[in-house]
Each structure stands twice: as structure tokens, then as C-alpha cells.
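Appendix B. One record, verbatim.
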Amino acid sequence: MSRNNLLIQVHDLCDGRGSGRRDDGGGGGGGGGGSGGDRAETTANRREGEGGGSRCSALALVVHRAQSPGLPAPGRYTPGRATDDDDDDDDDAAEGAVYLHRTPVFIEMANFKEWSSILMIYLFAHVAQYCCTNIANNECAYSSKNGKHNSRCQPKVNYRHKEKEVLDQILGPGSYDARIRPSGVNGTDGPTIVHINLFVRSIMTISDNKMEYSVQLTFREQWMDERLKFNDYNGKMKYLTLTEANRVWMPDLFFSNEKEGHFHNIIMPNVYIRIFPNGLVLYSIRISLTLSCPMNLKLYPLDRQTCSLRMVSYGWTTDDLVFLWKEGDPVQVVKNLHLPRFTLEKFLTDYCNSKTNTGEYSCLKVDLLFKREFSYYLIQIYIPCCMLVIVSWVSFWLDQSAVPARVSLGVTTLLTMATQTSGINASLPPVSYTKAIDVWTGVCLTFVFGALLEFALVNYAARSDSHRDEMSKKCDLERTVSLDVGDYEDNPNNTFNMKPLMRPELMMSRDKMSQIIHQTPPMEKTSCWKSWMSKFPSRSKRIDVISRILFPMVFAMFNMSYWSTYLFREGEDEDK
């Protein structure tokens, strides 16, 4: 029990025992002091009022002396003898803690029974405090003996300071050398096992022209280093964190298909190392990489591309260092990953150990399978090409005499189609094989060019028909039956002789003509096609009519064969 608590209990006890006398006497004393009347009356009232309060003051002094033996010995105190400090002494007595430094006092025990009870309370408090202390000490000793942890028995520890001590201990110059690789499994001389896992944060671009892609990822490595074990203070230290990677041994891993890359240092370097009590080391860093991605564009834009990420040891062979994928979900991809022209279908992890003339090196790879979004190319390439081909067919419906309109339409569509083709090829690398888009644009360009050639053929046929009509008219005039006045002969009958228009040697005998007529089969019924074509007597018009049907039919057949072929090949690639 503390001194202040004991003083409060003593003060409460005194208030309960002498409250009646203190109220009676205190009132008189207070009244005398406030009125400033006769001195003797004031002293008498004070003596009467202090009859009960003096015992409490004396008791408080005894308790205070017991708790503070360094105070001066008490002197004699005579109630009613006024000094300059009477008012201050009265106030101290009222609070229950009298410190008599100027006037020595002598405590007179008026009632031995009261004082004995107070002393018993005081002794009981000391005995209780002693017992509680012994019980707590015995409990801590029992917990320590049985190996049990009791937080009340342990002193408060500054674990931040302990972390510094542990780091200085395990990474000190004399205890750790970062140039030496850790031992193998269970402290053997085997290779150091490093487990790797990745978290793909974003895939920025996939370039068909440069055949590369950019990715941002969190790269993590884990390995055991027996030299870094430390005391975790009953689980209070879960791990230690470092931001300087050069203080511990690091695997010499590099990305073999990297073109360029950089670390992230905003706001602080995005890297940390965690050291666990059992010696496990976790290294994590955020990096951005631009990696090469060789592509096969034979099915472009109906293709799928596989882009790899390869991680290889640079200097340590498989005898010293082995990379393994972390068990259970070694590659993670951020949710809702959106790419402008591709979709990440799946990814596969594999091993790719490489052998050179200096040894065999451990290698890991992850293959990212991307499917090209066809809707973009359908809107930007295929539909515009179809529209240009259909527009080129409009010339078949124009009059053959509208030469400027048909020529301008054919040339415009041809140039537009050529521009479209060159724009498509500009976004792709030059390759030695034919792509699916090359087949499409080439055939569409052929149809547009064919429409322009069709007009040239129609124009030639029209001019030929015109020339033939002129010649036919001349022949008709020459074949007109005329009288040859200069070659007539007089005959006895005075008549004119008609001369045949054909030479005699070209004339056929009657018998031979009859034979040919009888040998000729009877005329068959004319077909619908011939009857319909008979409506267009000129060859140029017939060519236009045939082109109106032939061009759309051939283009439709090409579409059927094109889509069935390349979509089937796309399905085969997906099955692989």
C-alpha cells in the first residue's frame, strides 16, 4: 500500500471519528477568525475545535514518519498557542498530513484504543503488500521452471533496438560474406536452390513491326541462407527487412530476351529483402522490361502469338545454382488486364536449361499466349476492302458511252485499294512468306483491277461493233440487186438477161443443196440464257451483263474458301 493511499484512509477514519467535535469547534474557530474579535475568545474556540482534530493530525504524522524516517523528530505541540504560522498549520492539519518543520510538536495519545486500531491497519497493509510480492515472485519462478511464458514476469523489451542488434550480429563484417553463395539443402555442398515467382502488373504494348512487347512485373526470389538465422524472441520478430540488396548474397539472374529495362525509384526504390528467423531470404523488386517476341504472321490477323520471358543464370552453373518455379501459382496476372489489340488467353511455365561450352546453366521461362482481336481488323481492313470492290462494280451498270465516269471510278477505286494495301504493309515487318491479309488485299486489288479491265474490253467491243455495223451497211449496199446495164446482150426475144450476183463457180447445185438441207437436224428450242442474251444484240452490252453476274459470284466463292481455310487453320493453332 502506498503512502498516499494510507494517508487518505487515515484521514477518512479521523473524519468519521471526530466529525462531531470538529464541526462544533471548527465553527466557533472559523467564526472567531472571520470577525477579528477578542484574542482570548478566538484561542478558546480554537482549543475547543481542535480537540478532535489534534488526534488526526498526530496520527497522520505517525503514518508519515513510518513511511519517511528521514523527517526530523517531533517536538512538543501546545494547542491554542498562536504563532505567525497558525493559519498554515491549521490548513495542514485539515489535509491529514502535518509537516512541523518550524515548531516542534509532541504527540499526546488521548485514546490508546484508537491509536492501536490505526497501527493495526498500518501493519496489515505492510503484510498484504509483502504477501503479494512473494506470490508474484513465486509465480514467475514457477513459469520459468516449467518453460511457460508469462508476460507479467518479463521486462519490457525495445524490439526495434533488438532488430538493430540482430542485423549487426548476422551481417557484421566478421560473421557474413556476401561474396560466398549459401550452402545447398540441409547444409550440404549441393547447389543453392532459388525459387522464383512473378506477378504481372501490366502489359503495355505488343509491337508487330518490331516484334517486341513491354511488361511491368514484380519479380521475387527465395532461397535459404543458413548464415542468416537469428533469434525471433518468441515470435516477436517475424522477419527483418533490408533495402540494400548488396548486403547479402544475390543470385546472378538475367533476362535473356531482354531488349531494355529499368527499375522503379519513385518515391523510394521499389525493392526489399526480408530475412526470416530460419534463414529464408525473400527478394522482391518491381521492374519494367521490353522483351523480344519472334512472331509467325502467316495467319495475320487471325493469328495467335506466343511471347516468352526467359530467366537464366549468368555465371553460376547448375552445379552451384538451380532455379525452380515456386510451388503453387508461380505466375500471377493482375485482374482485368486489358490490351488494345490482344487478349491474354493463358500462360505456361517451363524449364529451359541452356548448354554452352562453359557449362550448363539453369533457365526458367514463362510463355504468354496472346490472341489477336479480330474485330479491329474486320472494321479497319476487311469491310473497307469489300466496299471498294463493290463500288468498282458500279461501272458495269453505267452506259458504255460514259467513258469519263467509268474510267474515273475504276482508277479511283484502284488507287484507294493500293493505298489501303500499302498502309497495312507499313505496320508489319517485311517477311518472306505470304500472310492471310496479303491474300485478302491481293484478291480485292485484283477484282478492282479486273473491273477496270472490263471497261477496256467493253470499250473495245463497242468500237468493234460500231465498225462491224458500218461494214455491214456497206455490204448490204453492195449486195443490193442492181441491173448491169453495160453487160446486157441482145437476144432474139429483145429481153434483158439478169446476171447472178455470185460467181458461177461459187454457186451450189440444186441436188447438193437439197442433200445438205436433208442432213441438217431440226432446230432445237432456244434456251432461257440465249433468249435472255438475245435481248442485248451488241457484244459490249453482253459483256457488261455477264460481268454483273460473274464478278459477285466469283468474289462470293473466294470469300467462302478464304474464311473456311484460315478459320480452320486458326482452330488448329488453338488446339496446339
